[in-house]
Amino acid sequence: MDRALPKRFWTTQRIAIFGGSTLVLGLLAYTFMFADRRSKLNVEKDKITVSNVATGPFEDFIAVTGVVQPLKTIRLDAIEGGYVTQKLVEGGTMVKKGDVLLKLENQSLKLSFLQSETEANRLVNDLQNTRQRLRVERYTLRKTLSDLDYQTEQAKDIFDRQTKLFKDKVISEQDYQKAKIDYNKLIEQRKIEVESQKYQEDNSKLQIQQLEGTLQRTQRNVALWQQTLDNLVVKAPVSGQLSSIDVEVGSNINRGQNIGQIDDLNGFKMRVGIDEHYISRVFSGLKGSFEFNGKTHELAISRVYPEVKSGRFEVDMIFPKGTPEGIKRGQSSPIQLELGKAAKATLLPVGGFFSDTGGNWVYVLDKSGKRAVKRQITLGRKNPEYYEVLDGLQPGDQVITSSYENFGDNEVLEF
């Protein structure tokens, strides 16, 4: 007779189910607690650039481009306006100081000169006439005074005789008084005449002084007008090359208008454009260098133009040890401009990553070399070859320095 066997709880099926469930739960727990949940992207290693971080001297310089220009450029500005009647030279011609370049015509200036000259001539005639009149008046006054002296002597002689006769009671008192009055009248008249002559002479001298002063001023005015007319003939102020002259016969020129320039070819300089980012670090005396004809030549900033145009400002650089032989106006050349002395630093090669990260972070390869992880960094100065690393990287680190444009926001790159 068969007997019923008790049922077992841990059947094979149940063990399988329980084991499978435990395994799944364990995997889920591991994934939740320990798995790397950072965003990842698979990239091809041969399509990126990996650079090594190293320690070395950081040379603080920037690469700029300079253009050879004459050491001195003299602007030709019209001192006086007028229309061009003659153009004697063309641009590009070598000229000497004093050579006539243009001839202008200005009828208004000529009329003003003639009026001033006429006024000066009139004043000369007035002065001559006044001096002549003073001489005539002096002769006339001397003659008048001489006649008065003669009359006074006669009156004195009569008065003296009448006085003696009056004392002897030969003549009447009336005759005596008449002789006395006539004599005293002539004496007083002579005093008045002397004072009148002195006043007239002083007045004539004052008129002459005033006329002479007016004449001198008018003559200076005539000289200025003559100089103004001379300025209608435009001459070269210095010797050099007339690099440009922007006028033609018949054209009208205004006073102060620029009509060209003359280049002094006795020396050259380099005109250099620099990014406005460096304007606070650029000043006169900074050194630089460039290659020409297989040799390195020194440069030094002589002048800084602080005006910023299109994000750039300009400086002039001269050759402290002399202009290189064979250099010509208009040539351009790359220049290494030193902003400071070389100093030991941690160096990261320049690359396209900077435009995507602003230098705030980079992808750094791990020890296996099979993945790169995003890391925050701090960069300092930059030259055309390296960035100065201030924090976040150590010598020996390997960094992706090519563009990050296709990496998105992924934190880990796997190769």
From TrEMBL:
GO molecular function: transmembrane transporter activity
Main location: other
Superkingdom, taxonomy of origin: Bacteria
Multidrug resistance protein MdtA-like C-terminal permuted SH3 domain boundaries: 346-403
Keyword terms: Coiled coil, Membrane, Transmembrane, Transmembrane helix
Coiled-coil intervals, chain numbering: 201-228
Pfam family, one: RND-MFP_C
SUPFAM superfamilies in the cross-refs: HlyD-like secretion proteins
A GO CC term attached to the entry: cell envelope
InterPro entries on file: MdtA-like_C, RND_pump_MFP, UPF0194_transport
Residues annotated as transmembrane: 15-35
Compartment(s) where it occurs, according to its Swiss-Prot or TrEMBL record: Cell envelope
Protein's name in the database: Efflux RND transporter periplasmic adaptor subunit
Organism: Spirosoma agri
